[in-house]
Write a structure and sequence with these properties.
- With 366 residues, the chain is α/β, with parallel strands linked by helices.
- Helix content is 41%, strand content 16%.
- It contains 14 helices and twelve strands.
- Helix 6 links the parallel strand 4 and strand 5.
- 50% of the residues are buried.
- It binds pyridoxal-5'-phosphate.
């Protein structure tokens, strides 16, 4: 509880002419501590801490757009983000065009007079394609639009989109930034020009963070640089292991990881990401979902867990979880089949992870 000295001070605090706290939805010290740290990592003075990653995206939409505006939406976004930007935003009179974030010419063509925002992910899910943030920013800025980057998979340790020219960056703090699977929180940071409406919209639409989650996430953030370094190092070794399995003719028929020289965005990822290629790997098993189930059952050390970014390695099956709403053709366009497994690599020993994977492959094959 925060007490006001008198009515005059209450007025000043609520108007924002005096710094201080009145009510948690408008601001609280734990969110400010967390926001300061995120601001340092992203090189921004403007950070809003939100109740979830989805709330950060809602905040971007509600603060930046209005009826009659047009959005460009990457066709490789997290499923719920696409739902929000194409379906829910449409209900508010905001139109959209789905674009391939890797096709710069197509994006230039898709820009309209009323295009206000392009939304992409630094590293997409589950194909792990890497968006060229500097090039995208240049294209949209020429048309007077802005760029919002969902940097959840990269975290500010690997990539700082604002420094590359993006106008807004968001993260699901629930994932690698907190890192322990016990918090639901989001973050939006941006430039001065984008920020005027953000604090009022965050408080007024009820998107603000809880003090407890902000406090826990601040503890998580203290080890993010160590966790991301270790998880990235592990992920590269695990991706190499899976690529060897593929070469050896095992059940693995495809491996996607930006750190592998054969990945289509390896050069861009090497330039744009610092200190590693992230914790996420996708690989494909031959056969149908029965094979995926056999693999999951035979690798009990790796939890089948649709979320990601924990200290332990977890597996997900996009066709039955994050992308289950897609038609077969839509899923195929994103490279998702019944055999696609997405791995969120943790900070265990690399031997533990590769042994568990080997066990899963052997069990599925038997
Ligand atoms: C890339 C990405 N962005 C945003 C979100 C939404 O974040 P939250 O679950 O914190 O609302 C997720 C959740 O999985 C995600 O993977």
């Amino acid at each position: 509880m925060w007490e006001c000295d008198d009515t005059e001070q209450a007025n000043r605090l609520l108007e924002g002419t005096e710094a201080g706290y009145v009510y948690q939805r408008d601001g609280h010290p734990n969110a400010d501590v967390f926001a300061d740290l995120c601001g340092q990592l992203h090189g921004s003075e403007h950070v809003a801490v939100t109740s979830s990653g989805m709330a950060a995206l809602s905040l971007a939409v509600l603060s930046q757009l209005q009826q009659g505006d047009h959005l460009l939406v990457s066709s490789q976004l997290y499923g719920r983000s696409e739902w929000l930007l194409t379906g829910e935003a449409g209900r508010l009179g905001i139109t959209h065009t789905l674009v391939d974030a890797l096709d710069l010419d197509a994006i230039e063509q898709a820009l309209q007079e009323n295009t206000r925002l392009l939304v992409v992910e630094t590293i997409s899910n589950p194909q792990l394609r890497v968006a060229d943030i500097a090039a995208l920013a240049e294209i949209v800025h020429k048309a007077g639009a802005r760029l919002l980057v969902d940097n959840t998979f990269a975290t500010p340790i690997l990539c700082q989109p604002l420094a590359l020219g993006a106008d807004l960056v968001m993260e699901s703090v629930s994932k690698m930034m907190n890192g322990h699977g016990d918090v639901m929180l989001g973050m939006l940071a941006g430039t001065q020009q984008c920020w005027e409406r953000v604090p009022r919209v965050c408080a007024g639409w009820g998107l603000a963070s809880s003090p407890m989650s902000s406090w826990l996430a601040t503890r998580g953030l203290a080890t993010m640089h160590l966790r991301m370094a270790r998880a990235s190092e592990n992920a590269l070794a695990v991706a190499q292991f899976l690529a060897e399995q593929q070469q050896a003719g095992s059940l693995v028929v495809d491996v996607q990881y930006p750190g592998l020289p054969g990945h289509p965005d390896h050069d861009l990822a090497s330039r744009q990401l610092q200190g590693g290629f992230g914790a996420m790997i996708s690989f494909r098993l031959a056969g149908d979902s029965t094979m995926a189930d056999r693999f999951l059952a035979a690798a009990p050390g790796l939890a089948f867990c649709p979320s990601l970014g924990e200290t332990s390695t977890t597996l997900s099956h996009p066709a039955s979880t994050s992308h289950r709403g897609l038609s077969e053709q839509e899923a195929a366009a994103l490279g998702i089949t019944a055999g696609t497994i997405r791995l969120s690599v943790g900070i265990e020993s690399v031997e533990f992870i590769t042994q568990a994977l080997a066990q899963g492959l052997a069990g599925a094959a038997s």
